[in-house]
Specification:
Layout (H helix, E strand, L loop, with lengths): L4 H7 L9 E6 L11 H7 L4 E7 L17 E2 L6 E4 L9 H4 L4 E5 L10 H15 L2 E5 L36 H11 L5 E5 L27 H10 L19 E4 L4 H10 L5 E8 L11 E8 L7 H15 L7 E2 L2 E2 H6 L3 H8 L5 H14 L1 H9 L5
Parallel strand pairs: 1-2, 1-5, 2-4, 5-6, 6-7
Antiparallel strand pairs: 3-4, 8-10, 9-10, 11-12
Helix pairs in contact: 4-5, 6-8, 8-11, 10-11
Length: 387
């Protein structure tokens, strides 16, 4: 079994935080291989001086839904104060950590640019650098590591809490490697140490690790969800349901005006590798089209070695916008949300401007342009790989 960063801290690396007053950024995914939480282990051990908890989006115990602001609180299990990093502010402020020596970060990532927890990590780097504190990152597997990097490299002018640090959509790094990449490539200058895993490599799928999967957010229930998310997350920027409010978020996609049989038939004809589409019928309990009858498709992952998640999502978008005039792009504060996810308007404009074209051809047009700026990222990434 892979030995996680938290396990190595608890056994081999205790001395690195000896006599340090600690704060911990974590959520329910912060566990060891036996499902003991990092919170409880650091709190209950005499070897550590854990003073404060910091919660990312969804909260320290993972009970807040997407986008819900979380208030500061007291953790019922440990009695420790909990400072929210997804409430009034999203960055550690000097007064939050002035009585601490170091911050520990332990959250399972999913390997995709859109996932907000990695920007909580980036913000922590900037904060500890500002006040001359230390940051320890407890490394964990990237569950989709064997997939090739994919998607466009987002420009820093378009950076947001769902995309930044010039990352492509599939970045292919662990959180420890991301910390090194962010810190060095963007000259943050934080005092950061990565507690590495042992017995893991980038060729390992999560199932190869023998580790249990603990959902790092309410709508990431399985490793299969993480495999599909880099493509189907784009539906967050549309008026279609991306499956939130069902038991299969990012695997079920649909809307009240869609014919499940028609869309599934069109997608099957695209002959996309590693995935199949089934006509699906569902009614979300919350989020878009709440309590309405919806028709759409369910994606079924057939071959993880063959699937291209980003291109799959782009093909789905191109096909459904071609089939149904009711499909539209959602705007927030006069900005198309899909443009924020993509970091540019090219995706939306290409789909809108290529009506009548084969959906897979439209997806390849977008993907081919995105390939060009990824070569430089791959060179930058290579400098920070540890496994």
């Amino acid at each position: 079994m892979v030995r996680l960063g938290v396990e190595r801290l608890l056994t081999d690396k205790t001395s690195v935080v000896e006599d340090q007053r600690l704060g911990l950024i974590t959520n329910p995914s912060g566990t060891d291989g036996d499902l003991n939480t990092t919170i409880d282990q650091l709190h209950d051990s005499d070897a550590f001086d854990l003073r404060r908890l910091f919660g990312p989006e969804h909260g320290i115990r993972g009970d807040a839904q997407v986008g819900v602001k979380v208030e500061d609180s007291t953790d019922e299990r440990t009695g420790l104060p909990v400072t929210s990093l997804y409430g009034r502010q999203r960055r550690l402020q000097p007064e939050m950590i002035e009585d601490l020596d170091a911050i520990v970060y332990d959250i399972q990532d999913i390997g995709c640019r859109f996932y907000t927890n990695i920007y909580t990590l980036g913000n922590a780097l900037w904060s500890v650098a500002q006040v001359d504190k230390r940051l320890f990152v407890l490394d964990r597997p990237n569950p989709i590591a064997p997939l090739a990097t994919a998607g466009n490299r987002i420009d820093e002018d378009a950076a947001s809490f769902v995309g930044g640090y010039e990352l492509p959509i599939i970045h292919g790094m662990t959180v420890g490697e991301l910390a090194s990449y962010m810190n060095e490539e963007f000259a943050i200058g934080a005092d950061v140490s990565v507690v590495e895993m042992s017995d893991w490599s980038h060729s390992d799928w999560f199932s190869d690790t023998d580790l249990p999967w603990v959902s790092p957010s309410p709508n990431m229930p399985t490793v299969g969800t993480a495999m599909l998310y880099p493509g189907t997350c784009f539906f967050e920027g549309t008026n279609l349901s991306e499956g939130r409010g069902t038991t299969r978020p990012f695997e079920l996609v649909g809307a009240p005006w869609i014919s499940a049989d028609e869309w599934a038939e069109v997608l099957a004809a695209q002959d996309l590798p590693g995935v199949a589409f089934r006509p699906a019928y569902f009614s979300p309990t919350f989020s878009k089209h709440e309590q309405q009858h919806i028709e759409g498709v369910q994606l079924h992952l057939l071959d993880r070695d063959a699937i291209a998640p980003v291109k799959t999502g782009l093909t789905m978008l191109a096909s459904v916008f071609e089939l149904y005039d009711q499909c539209d792009w959602i705007e927030y504060d006069d900005e198309f949300f899909v443009d924020k996810l993509a970091g540019e308007s090219y995706l939306r404009e290409t789909i809108d401007g290529n009506a009548g074209d084969d959906p897979r051809t439209v997806a390849e047009t977008i993907s081919d342009r995105w390939t060009e700026d990824r070569a430089e990222f791959d060179d930058d990434r290579a400098r920070h790989l540890r496994y």
